[in-house]
## 1
Amino acid sequence: MKHDDLTDISLEVAASTFAALGSEQRLSVLRCLVRAGNDGLSIGELGQRTGVTGSTLTHHMKILAQAGLVRQEKQGRSIICAAVAYDAVHQLSHFLLRECCADSSQPDKDHDHG
């Protein structure tokens, strides 16, 4: 999700990003990279931790990278993968929650999403 405005993403961008997360394996890969932090993991370590390896992992990383959720960079002989999803996840949650209870007759005091 490559978009600069945190408060207003389009339906199209949100749908494509949610689609990229629409696989248990991709979601597992992303969660693992989020846990690893900014240093990321080598592709081998990522595969070991998630149980997703080889061409399947390559395929999932390509989809996540196209959605702007992860990055890959070559460091020597290794490929290091890292999550860059923090802003994207914030955008997605804001997209879903910004109009929370807008059509309700009573304000939703239990779900203040600011």
## 2
Amino acid sequence: MIDVETCDNFFLKAIGADAQPLGWPSPLESHLGRSADGIPFFAQSEKAVWLFDRTPTVARAAAARYPVIGLKECQDASVPSTRR
């Protein structure tokens, strides 16, 4: 099976189920966006990297579900300054 989606949607699928344990509201989808109280989309990727780094079980589950990930829009894949 092949999923074609945006980076934001990939990260939403990867961490959406873990929103509450990560300290975010659930369901996460209804709290994302540019509104004053919304969670910025870029924060999903940062939180996913944090989660994958600290929770190998979650990282392995994501790797099993998505064994190959190809990115078309590389501007969405910049490394946060804290990880350089």
## 3
Amino acid sequence: MFDQARLEQARSVSTLLGRVAIGAIFLVHGLTKFTGGLSGTTAFFEQIGVPLAGVAAPAVAVLEVVGGIALILGAALPVFGVLLALDMLGAIVFVHGANGFGADKGGYEFVLALAAASLMIAFSGGGALAADGLLRRRSGRSGATVA
């Protein structure tokens, strides 16, 4: 039905759209931690039992902002994809896990989807429209894009 070139174009565009959507979610969540005040985020982290909340709150905020931008650009995807997935696993452990699966009850459904999407993006190669792929091609390294 599709020839190989069209299939590769569809993969690149769909990977770009996925990276941008997931990256934007992380970017907005991270910015909210700053605009709402890191002191409030730190207090919330302390309340839910996050170890070293005073360090964890700004670290998570920075990770979500920088990681969100990295996903959007397709840069350092293995690093940021894994870190963001771990971030969401922490959200499951400390916040959402006790509420069950359903997002409508504050459960872990949404953050699990973000963790899974982050891992898929981490090891997708980012597609032809990712900074990682452009750098790979520019340096002459192979490393074909998987998705």
## 4
Amino acid sequence: MTTSDAQERARANRRETSGPRREELLSAAAACFDELGYTATTVELIAARAQTSRPTFYAYFRSKDEVLLAVTEQVCAELESTQQLEEIESLPPVTVLRSTTRAFAETIFAHGSLVALIDSRAGVDPDVDELWTTLRRRLERRFTQYLSGLDPATIDPCVQPERLVSMLSDSIVRGAARLGRATDEVREQFINDQIRLTERAIGVTDDALPEP
């Protein structure tokens, strides 16, 4: 084995292992991408933000693209977790819709402009696109299955559930992503508007709404 082969194997082992240094680099990369965008962010800036060196960066990631992919994985995991409610079958539909809509939007807000960047990069980076598209499809499929399993007396969707879920997904992802730098008041208004839109589109019946 040559020296370069040994170094690459060491780097591969580090990339596969989570640890404080890797997490610091991921956090620094996320902050740089959020504040500066993809093009202006460099390996040197990420390393400086993490208070480490360029060689240390390359011990964990091969490139800026690879660290963006790792950041995307983290963001996708966080967004997916917002749609997982315990004992969801026993909750009123309106409670599920309001809770998941708020949690999803607030998680997007928490990442500033990062979700907008990921959504944009998915159009030009096949690896990011695979992660992002897989997440979107998984969430939409889960939501569609949830709606399809509800008592027909509690909802009246304005269009076929699968198409409706896709449209609502686009609305909240793109809408919330554009408000990464907005005030808390504007964000709260967006969430309330999105909840009302969702309830109207799904056709939550009066009987399913909580008592005033």
